[in-house]
Amino acid sequence: MTALMIAALGALMVATAFLSGLFGMAGGMILIGVLLMLMPLPTAMVLHAITQMASNGWRAFLWRAHIRWRPVFVYLIGCALALGLWSLTRYVPDKPIALLLLGATPFMARLMPKNLKPNPDSIWQGSFYGFVCMGLMLMTGVSGPLMDTFFLGGNFGRREVVATKATCQVVSHLTKLIYFGGIIDQAATLDPVLAAVAIAASMLGTTLARRILEAMSDAQFRTWANRLITTVAAYYILYGSWLLLVHGSVASF
């Protein structure tokens, strides 16, 4: 990649890490959509994994006093089960399918029956969400919208939501890196300079968001987080549908 392209991606990573640092979500969802437009899917997944590991790892460190460890350990049980299943199939989705799933995930989560309110402290729910979220991670690159619904359903404050989710995401993205960087048949490689820029940009954006998150109320946090996720998800549904239509039209000729 050219120096200009690397610089542009670095700026985007700062901005998306800032969003994730502020809301604990959305930034990774925006970033993977842009990367899927620019790169082959396995390469986009590997770069996104490195970026998000840095962003979430630094965020977890900054808010380490607010991490709820029981939900983290239960969530990781489901992640391990999902990786085992996907490793048997080595499935890699097409870009339009990945984008459609990426956009549909928040709406799918909101259609769950109200009597099945997410409980992050439940062993069974935590394992189930871990399994499903890890599956979505390997299909779309992110699992944030569904994970957000899970953690927002508990009695967590905004700092606990951000810290606990970030800790889960570090392991989720590490798993994604292992899958797309080594397990699948068309495993991706990555320019070390671009990887270094991704790590530095993610840590910078996360740090910049900390003071603003401190100033927000829990009500403001939940309201703006839901609005942002809905807007981004709707865009990906439209864009994925357009790609699917175009690919289908080309294939018919």
TrEMBL record:
Secretion signal, residue range per the UniProt entry: none
Pfam short name (any one): TauE
Domain of life: Bacteria
Major place of residence: membrane
Family under the similarity heading: Belongs to the 4-toluene sulfonate uptake permease (TSUP) (TC 2.A.102) family.
Keywords, alphabetical: Cell membrane, Membrane, Transmembrane, Transmembrane helix
Protein localization: Cell membrane; Membrane
Keyword Transmembrane helix: yes
GO terms under cellular component: plasma membrane
Keyword Signal: no
Organism classification: Bacteria, Pseudomonadati, Pseudomonadota, Alphaproteobacteria, Hyphomicrobiales
Topological type in the membrane: Multi-pass membrane protein
Residue intervals passing through the bilayer: 29-51, 72-91, 97-116, 128-147, 225-245
Protein name in the entry: Probable membrane transporter protein
